[in-house]
What we know:
heterodimer; A: alpha+beta; about 20% strand; B: six-stranded mixed sheet; four-stranded antiparallel sheet; 10 strands; about 35% helix
Amino acid sequence: MNSFVFRWSSKRIRKRGRLTSCLILIALVMAPLVCALIFSDSMMEGITSKYIYLSDGHLQLSYNYGKELEDFDVSRYPDMLYSADEVTTGYALMYSATGTSNVMVKGTDKDYFNDKRLDQITFMVASESDNASTTSNLKGITISRATAKKLQVSIGDRVALMIVPDNPDKVLRPVLCRIDSIFYSGYDQLDSLLCFVDIDYAKTLYSEKSSTSIELLVKGDYMEKLDDVIAALGDGYGISKWNEYNVAVYENFVTSRQMIFIILLLVVVVAAFYTASVAQQMVQDDMTDIAIAKLIGSSDTLVKKSAFLSVYAVTVIGMLIGIALGLLIGCNLGPILTGLSDLGLQSLSFYLLDFDINVPWLSILIISLCLLAISYVAIWLSLAKTRRISPIQLFTSL
Amino acid sequence: MHPIELQCITKRFKAAEKGEEEITILQDLSLNVIQGQSTAIIGRSGSGKSTLLHIAGGLDSPSEGKVFCSGIDFATLDDRKRSELRNLHIGFIFQANLLLEDFTALENVMAPALISGKKAKDCRERAVSLLRRLGLEDRMNHVPGKLSGGEKQRVAICRALMNEPEVILADEPTGALDEENATDVENLLLDLVKEEGRSLLLVTHNQEFAFKCDNVYLLKNRTLNLEKSLS
C-alpha cells in the first residue's frame, strides 16, 4: 500500500461529513439486520425446542411389523439416546363453565418431565391446602396457562373433556377432570394445544395401540444426525422425526428463515450500492485534491485506490459497528421483548418470548461478505469514471 | 538531452459553439529548457503562457508537435508512466499554491516522495531540511489554512523540490503575493534552483522577475521570441 494513498484515505475518513453519514448508514443497516437474524433464528430454534421437548420428541417410535414398544430398551443406545418415554395421545374438546378449547391430551408417566423438559416449562402446582380442599375421585389434569385463561379456570377447578374417539368402536363421551397444575412454556400457540394426564388414565380414554408411542430425546451431537439414530434403531418400528410430525410448522420455519435471509440480503445490496454513490460523490467533492494529487505525480490508479480505500474502510468500520450493535441488542432481546410485551404490545404474546439466544454466525458472515463483495465491486465501478478526468480539466475548473 | 524539449508545438482549442472556428493558441513553437539554467517566458495575459507550461509538464497535450521530458516523448506514455515521469522529473509551482488542505505543511512537502514510493522516514528527513532552509521549521505541523500566502508558496516550492526533479515549472509563482513576499519568494526560488542544480521554466508577466532568469522569451503572436540568453 502506497503510504500517500493511506495518508490521504485516513485524512478523508477523519474528516466529518459524507463519509460519516455513510458509516452511520451502514451501521444502522447492519445493526437491525443482525438483530433480526438473531431474533428469527433464536425464536425458530426456541419454538423447535418447544415442539421437540413438549410435543413430539426428536423421534417417535410406534408399533410396526409387530414389534412391541415394551421391548424397546433405551439402555442399548447409551451414546445416542437421552430418554425414551411412553406416551398416549389423543384429541378432546375441553369445557369449562365459560368456554371451550380444542386440546391434545397427552398421557405421560411421572418421569416424563426430565431435566431437559423442565428447562422448557414452568409449573404452577396446587398447594397442600388446595389439595386438601379438593379431595375427590376426579382424575388430575395439567393444562396450560393459555388454556386456563381462555376457559377462565384455575388450579382445583373442574373441566370436562369431550374425548374424540380414535376407534370406531368407542363413542364420543365426556369425562370430568380436576386441574392439578398449570404450565407455561413461553409459547402460547403450542401451550394452548397441550394438556397432560397420567398415562394409565390416557390409555383408558384412547385405543392403546394406535395412540401410544415412545418419544425419544437424542443426545447433543445426534440432534443433527437423526437419520443415523434411525438407522441404528433398526427395522421393526415405525419411526418419525419431529419435523415429519409437524410438517407445516417445519416448512413454515424453513421458508420464513429463507425469506427473512433473502430480504435482509436485498437490504444489504441496497446499502452496498449506496457506498458506490458515496464514492462517486466523494470524487466530485474532492476534485481540487485530486487535481493537486495528479499535479504532483499521482496516477489515476492511485487516486482511485485512495477513494476506494476511504469508502471501503468506512464501509468495513460501519459494518463492524453495526454487527457489534446488533449483537448487543440481539443478545438482550429476551428482556427487551418481555418489556415491550409488559408495556401492552399484545401482538407479542403470540410469539415465543422465552427463548435462548442463538447467534447465527454463518448468516451474519454471509451477509457481511455480501456487503463487502458488492460494495467492493460497486465502488470500483463507480470510480472507473475518474479515468476520464485529466489534470488540465481540473485546473480549468478550479 | 534537455530536461524539457518542445518540438514544433501547435495548440488549438475547439470552438465553444458550433460554427465558430478553432482557436490557435500556439503555432509551431520550439523550446529547450537547458539543464541547470532558468528560463522565463513572458507575455500578455491570454497569450498562451500557461498553456505552454501545461504542455511542457505533460498536463495537457499539444495538437501538433512533440514534448520530451528527459528524452522521453510524453505522447508515448500511458497515464501511469506519465504520472511517474511528472512525479520524478518535474516540480510544479502555481500562482494558487495548490496545497492539500487536510495535510500539514510537512505532509504536503513529503507527498511527491510518498507517491513515488520512498520510505516515509527518508521523505520526512528531506522535507524537514527543505522546510528549514525556507524558514518554516516552526510551521511544519500547520495545515495550509493556518499559513500566510507567502508561507504557503514557500511550502509549494519545497514540495516542488522534494523529489529532486530535473526541472521546476512555475506559473506566476508570486502572482498572488504582496511585493515584499513576492521578492522573498522570487529570490528563494532562484537561489534554491541554482543551489540544487535544477532547471527552471518560469511563466510570468512580471518582467523584473523574468529578467533575473538566465534566458527570457517573449510569447507573442503564438510564437516565442528570445529576449535574453545566458549564452
